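Quick note —
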Amino acid sequence: EVQLVESGGGLVQAGGSLRLSCVASGFTFDDYRIGWFRQAPGKEREGVSCISGSDGSTDYADSLSGRFSISRDSAKNLLYLQMISLKPEDTGVYYCYAAIGSDTYWGQGTQVTVSS
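Predicted structure written out below.
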């Protein structure tokens, strides 16, 4: 059974930093694309960043301006999202996901709130 569990969210002031973690189980971590989406209040879920299973290449939403960094620890099946220079518009629920074949699996999400 595929499971994804996020942690690390919280309340932070604008300009601060957070590191989100996602522990995965039930699949071979390096074989599939994994990443992060977020959903702000009243908005659709949007892609933040992902990392390819085949070569470890990464991709980011253009709007992030280099403030976020995705990484993984394959030995521990952990996915990270380091976020710096946080802005109030980064507020939302952050979801870890894994694209496995034709299916996409989601974690339960972790809340990030950035105060101005």
